[in-house]
Amino acid sequence: LSLIFLIGLISCSIGDRDEGYNACLNVNFHKHCNNEYEFKVDPPLSLKLFRWSCLADVKYNCMHEITQQRINQGLNIVQYYGKWPFWRVFGIQEIFSVIFSIGNGYAHYVHRSKLNRLPNNFYLINYLKGYNLVTINTWIWSTVFHCRDVRITERLDYFSALASVQFALHYCFLRVFQVKAFWQQLIAIILSLSFYANHIYNMNQHFDYGYNMKVNIAIGVITNLLWIGWSVYIKYFDQSSKSPKTAHPDPWGPVVVGVQLSLAMSLEILDFPPILGYVDAHSLWHGATILVIYRYYKFMIADAHWYAKSFDTTSDKLI
């Protein structure tokens, strides 16, 4: 039993180190559980549906019991295993993060029809469609993860998120440097997939949250810097900018998106206890990114039409 309670030690917080909390775990585990997974009394359907183990349910109930005691004593609400105490809804752990994750996925999905109507002579048309599918997959796993945070859903959420971030950089690189030749695109794909596979392998050997975050931030910063350089060039130095008829319709689009994303991510820094036990900074961040997605596609679609109209895009397509 002691070994079971050591699960999550890496992400231990003030709450799960509390003596009262651990005493509650010990008493209620023996009272309600046959073992880590089995309940002595058949649990509600919602807990079965989202695969709550008996130990996880005991942790949840003790977390809220101790949290209420702290509130009654005028103490601050604290985290448990690196998480704030949320009230679950029909077995769902973080209901608003789930709702907003679905909203993000839908925001990507509704643009599929517009991507299908892009001119075929735009050399990155299939990359745009691929990016759309990858990001939809990312938000599906974000939804699943926020429904129920366990090892496998956490891994799928983190790794699919990296896939989206890395795909955005890959597309940015091909667009900014106009990489159109088959062999050049092939090399870029091999390098990108090799980096991704190596990262997944290393994370499965030792799941380092800090390292994973640094990798995602580094990729995001590089992507933003490339787009900023592109925007400045297109606006002030490209020959097409000399005439209103040939000028890019949205040269500052990626910069605006970068600023919006930075503002949205600042919500993560606030990190406050969930309001009424349901809405925290992380869920608000997911909510804010929905609007950014629409702005991002507005730029990418306008850019695709502009490029196809302005340039001879005859080239070999890899995909």
TrEMBL record:
It is a multi-pass membrane protein. It comes from the Eukaryota. One of its GO terms (cellular component) is fungal-type vacuole membrane. Keywords: Endoplasmic reticulum, GPI-anchor biosynthesis, Membrane, Signal, Transmembrane, Transmembrane helix. The keyword Membrane applies. One of its GO terms (molecular function) is hydrolase activity, acting on ester bonds. Residues 1-15 form the signal peptide. GO terms for biological process: GPI anchor biosynthetic process; intracellular manganese ion homeostasis. Involved in the lipid remodeling steps of GPI-anchor maturation. Belongs to the PGAP3 family. This is Post-GPI attachment to proteins factor 3. It comes from Conidiobolus coronatus (strain ATCC 28846 / CBS 209.66 / NRRL 28638).
